[in-house]
Structures are given as C-alpha cells and as structure tokens.
Design a protein that fits this description.
The chain is an all-alpha fold and 287 residues long. The protein has one domain. The chain has twelve helices and no strands. Helix 2 crosses helix 9 and helix 3 packs across helix 8. The longest helix has 29 residues.
C-alpha cells in the first residue's frame, strides 16, 4: 500500500504536466478536478460516518486548511504549466523542511542545530535545482518560484490539518476541507472553466480521471491504512522518496532533461531530508 501511494503521488506531477500541455488551462483543470474529488469525498464520508460535523472551535483551523489548499493548488498548476515536472518534483523534496520552519514559527517545533544544517543543505539544493532548470539563474524563474510556493503551502496545510486529523477521520476532514478549498478555487477558476474547450483527446480525460481518483482519492485511503499497519516513522521515511521518484517518471515518460546542477540539487535536498527526518506523519497528498 505504501509503495502504491508513493507511485501514485509521483505519477501525479507527470500526468498533470501532460494534461496542462495538451489543452487544459490550469484554473479549469483545478476547478474540474477538485470539484469531482469533493463530490467523491462527500459521498464517502456520508456513507461511512453519516455526518460532516466538526466542532465550532475547529472551524478556524478548517478555514485555514482550505485557504492553504487553495493557494497550494494555484501554485501547483501554474508551476507545472511554467516549468518541467522534474524540476517541480525536486523542489517538492524540501517540503518537510518548510513544514518544520512553519511549526517553529507557530511554536510547535523546537529545532536542533542538526536541523539548521539540514535546512541549509536542502535550500542549497533548491538553489541548484533552480539554477539548473533553464541553464542559469534566470531560467524558468517563475516556475521555480511557484514550485517553492507549492512546497511551502503544502507544508502549511500539513501543519494546520495535523490537529484536525487527531480528532476526525481523514474522510471527514477531506469531505469538509476539499469542498471549501474548491469553492475558493472556483471563485477564481470558473470564468476560465467556462471558456475552456472541452473537446480534448480521450487520453487527456483518462488522465484527468486518474489524477482525481488515484493521487487525490485513493492515496488518502492507502496512506492512513499504511500508517496504521507499519507506523508513521517507517511510512514517512519511504514517502520522502516520492519527489525523487516523480522526477524519474517525468524524465522517462515526458522525455524531460535534467542538468547536472539539478541532479546535484536533488541529492542535496535528499541529504538534508535524511538528516532532519521527522517522525510526525504528514497530511495525505492532495495534489
């Protein structure tokens, strides 16, 4: 289940990049995909638990999680429109470092000197990935910055949603947070979705169905069953490989190229994550 989850998460970047370069506008894609996923999660939660109720005291956290998810998805789709999936995959490897820094800012973390060394190494790796993405520091700058925003906002979402996961099932949280996030996405995305030409190739629609049912729905179920069976420490260690597996998929399936600087950057990011490996399980991937 863990390996299936990692593979589905990793494939999502390649699949999304293909969809966005074969006719789907970024905002239209996010609006359609999250609308479908929201309906699915609502159905699952209502069948499994027959309620979507959350405590009034948790509504602020729910709203913050939805806002983080909204910013994350806008960054995600535009990052993959602007630059290669392999570049974004490597940058996403630094997400645990961003999560720790956000936890520190809110007083949830106490970070050791080893962590700061790991953070410096990982961010140096991000710099190498950015400089190698277009043959220089000016290459694909917009896509790189959006990739960094994707990692940072996903880290923020993971921090915000963690206390909610301690009180509610992942199905209920997904059924509440995803529709709220979709409303925010739709507010900016519906005009684009209305103008979108939906006469696309069947492959695009098949991949859209995969991106919704696989990396967005099925992985939630697999991930939490995995945590229950083998524990968070072992699961998260393997899950940290996902960005690097995603980079390999992009290179093979999309025939993307990776510079020596990007390879070095990816190794530095991976090294930093190994040094600063945390034991708290992250939130399920919803990219």
């Amino acid at each position: 289940m863990l390996l299936s989850t990692v593979v589905l998460w990793a494939l999502n970047l390649t699949v999304t990049r293909y969809i966005l370069t074969h006719g789907f506008a970024p905002l239209a894609y996010a609006t359609v995909r999250y609308g479908a996923a929201s309906l699915i999660f609502l159905g699952i939660a209502l069948v499994a638990e027959r309620t979507l109720r959350v405590r009034r005291s948790d509504l602020l956290l729910v709203g913050a999680a939805a806002a983080c998810l909204w910013l994350n998805q806008l960054s995600f789709v535009y990052a993959l429109e602007q630059t290669s999936a392999s570049t974004i995959a490597l940058i996403l490897g630094a997400t645990p470092i961003f999560a720790a820094l956000i936890g520190l800012a809110f007083g949830l973390e106490r970070l050791s000197g080893k962590f700061w060394l790991a953070a410096a190494v990982s961010f140096a790796g991000v710099g190498f990935v950015a400089s190698g993405s277009g043959g220089g520091l000016t290459g694909d700058v917009r896509g790189t910055l959006l990739g960094i925003s994707t990692a940072a906002t996903w880290a923020a979402y993971s921090v915000v949603v963690t206390p909610l996961m301690q009180r509610y099932s992942p199905y209920r949280i997904s059924a509440v947070v995803l529709p709220l996030g979709w409303v925010l996405i739709a507010l900016v995305g519906l005009p684009t979705a209305a103008r979108q030409d939906y006469g696309l190739a069947w492959e695009v629609w098949a991949l859209l169905a995969f991106a919704t049912l696989g990396p967005l729905v099925l992985t939630n179920i697999l991930w939490f069953h995995t945590l229950h069976r083998i524990g968070a420490s072992r699961a998260t260690l393997v899950a940290n490989l996902q960005p690097f597996v995603a980079a390999v998929f992009a290179l093979v399936l999309l025939s993307e190229r990776m510079s020596l600087l990007q390879v070095l950057g990816g190794l530095l990011i991976a090294g930093g994550i190994l040094v600063a490996r945390r034991r708290r399980p992250p939130a399920p991937a919803s990219e």
